[in-house]
Amino acid sequence: MKLAVIGSGYVGLVTGACLARFGNNVVCVDTDVEKVETLRNGKVPFYEPGLSDMMARNVAEGRLRFSSVLGEALEGGEVCFITVGTPSAPDGSADLRYVESAARDIGRAMSGPLLVAVKSTVPVGTNGKVKTWITEELDKRGSGLRPDMVSNPEFLREGAAVRDFVEPDRVIVGLEPPESSEIAERMKELYSFVEPDKVLLMDIASAEMAKYAANAMLATRISFMNEIANICERVGANVDNVRQGMALDTRIGGKFLYAGCGYGGSCFPKDVRAIRDFAASSGYISQILTAVDEVNLRQKEVLYEKLSGHFGGLSGRTAALWGLAFKPKTSDTREAPAQALICRLLAEGVRVQAHDPRAIEETRQILGERQGLIYVHDPYDAVNGADALVVATEWDIYKQPDFERVKRLLKAPVIVDGRNLYSLAEMKRRGFDYYSIGRPEVRRAGAEMDV
Question: Which pTM was predicted?
Answer without folding.
Answer: 0.95
